[in-house]
Amino acid sequence: MAEFNRNFTDELRERLSVVDVVGRVVPLTKKGQNWWGCCPFHNEKTPSFSVNEDKGFYHCFGCGEHGDIISFTMKHNHMDFRSAIEELANMAGIKMPEYKPRDQKIVQREDSLFDICEKAAQTYIEKLFSADGEHALLYARKRGFSDEDIKKYRIGYAPKNNIIANKFANSKFLIDSGLCRRGDYGMYDFFRDKLMFPIFNPRGKIVAFSGRSLDGSEPKYINTPDTDIFHKRKTVFGLNFAREAIHRANRSIIVEGQIDAIKMQIGGFPETVAPLGTALTDDHIAILCKSNRNITFCFDGDNAGQKAAARACGIIMPFLRDTSDVKFAFVRGGKDPDEILKTGGTDAMKKIIDDAVPLVDFLWDLTNKNYVVSTPGGRSQAEKFLKKEINKITDNDLKIEFEKEYNARKFNTWHKWKKSNNVSNINLPDVDAVTKNTLIYIVNTFPELAERYLDFLGTLNIDFDGVAGELNLDFKDAEKYIVFLKLQRYIDKLNLQKQDLTSRMLMGDENAREELNKIDDELSSAHQKRETLLTI
Q: Where are the beta strands (DSSP E) in 178-293?
């Protein structure tokens, strides 16, 4: 078995879940972190056959059979190694390579690339804590990275000179590592004057780097180009740190960038990962689904974030199972997770994640948003879009349930005839223009306040995507403004109730007097709170 291409078998193990492979022939039930069923290799009535999705192995406590997806396919289907590989390749939808003995030159090349990356990381770390890296260390600490964080994520600094080109000048694999390039005057460092973030493979080996500019120049981040040991579309950033947390949390969170992933891990969401230098791919999803099929996508709330979410929805459909819990969360107000954690803390970010929209609702909302379902033509287009997305689901029973769910929704909202009275209803804001503009400014400037007072703000019938002029309000004054407005509207509501009760009392309703006394007490308390708020 050692004579065959190790990279391809590793790719099969990355793309295919052992639970999916075994689950095709063995009914499995999840208990704790493992899945259990009756062993297919010996007769038993009580399940003793355990499957661990994270480790990629199965083990029978009855007969001792143990292995991975390849050995299971060989033993269960009575196949040789090559036939089992072909079977699994078909299942994964990838092309079989031509097998030949592993070239020792390739092995040596890969080992050399790992070695260069590891030693480069050590060099960058040393430079971060040297006089050359003083400004980079200051920047890292301003971004909220403690010395402990720097040590854990092995953050470093690439100086302005060609330190890597000089240090590894005798290595014939230096350019292949992506850390250096050859110019008219010799080799030069690819990363210079950058804050350096190592990129790890799932086994914790450094395979590449991401460099952050420190002088404001664009692009802000550059990554090592693809190499023999690093492929962006197949690399999930932060997975080496998040793997255990994903099991504990029973989900993974996907954010848009690697720095957001680190800050989320530090800020109380260790199950967070990110794609790297490229859009989300089916390879990323396949790798994550091996660990857990519960995924929360967390994107910015702008148009780009909405498009990224729509694309992620299309990619993940084939990976859905009836045990999957896929959701979509959005960070509003032009912020990103890093900023939310800085200003609102873990609680603000937790609310955003907890309020995530389930995939079934997100896809429905996406359809209604993109097509004019009030017209026959628009409904036809929407029907085709939904059908195309649902057909991506490979679990036939789940596909049927999605169809039933959307058929019910379509009947209740698209196809029920509604009489038109030809009267235009214009929803006007419940507040004056000055108050409206002030609230729009507050929501866009302090999104954590929007999250905190979402229930109240949602009653005002205001389009918060509008634009408002700059106001001289800090966080404290902005919150006071919302609380004051909330109190005032509460007082107005009580006054209306008081008018109604007074009329009832004058008409002889004896119960109204007691209710009126309660309203007066509430009004007195509300007025007192309002006066206290004005003095703060």
A: 180-183, 186-189, 194-200, 206-213, 221-223, 252-254, 272-273
CATH number at residue 327: 3.40.1360.10
Three-state secondary-structure class, residue 1: coil
Element (H, E) at 483: helix 475-506
**Of 348, 365, 382, which residue sits at a domain end?**
365
- Residue 452 CA: distances (Å) to CA of 263, 471, 481, 490, 506: 22, 21, 14, 18, 42
Query: Among residues 279, 272, 274, 270, which one has the least CA distance to residue 257?
Result: 274
Q: Which pLDDT score is estimated for 425?
A: 42
- pLDDT of the residue at 225: 93
Range of the domain at 206: 104-230
Contacts of 217 (CB under 8 A, 6+ apart): none
Is the pTM higher than 0.85?
A: no
CB contact burial 162-198 (16+ within 10 A = b; e otherwise): bbbbeebeebebbbbbbbbeeeeeebebbbebbbbbb
Residues 259 and 360 in one domain: yes
Q: How far apart are CA 533 and CA 527, in angstroms?
A: 10
The phi, psi pair for 488, rounded to 5°, reads -60, -40
Phi-psi region of 345 (alpha: psi -120 to 50; beta: other; left: phi over 0): left
What is the structure's pLDDT at 278? 63
Among the candidates 48, 64, 92, a domain finishes at: 92
Asked if residue 393 is part of any domain, the answer here is: no
Tally the domains of the chain: 4
DSSP secondary structure code for residue 60 in this structure: E
pLDDT averaged over consecutive 10-residue blocks of the chain (536 residues)?
59 83 88 87 87 87 90 86 84 71 77 94 96 94 92 95 90 92 90 95 90 86 92 90 86 90 94 84 88 89 86 94 92 82 91 95 94 89 95 92 93 65 45 81 80 77 70 85 87 85 76 82 84 74
What pLDDT, on the 0 to 100 scale, is given for residue 427? 45
**What are 313's strand-pairing partners?**
none
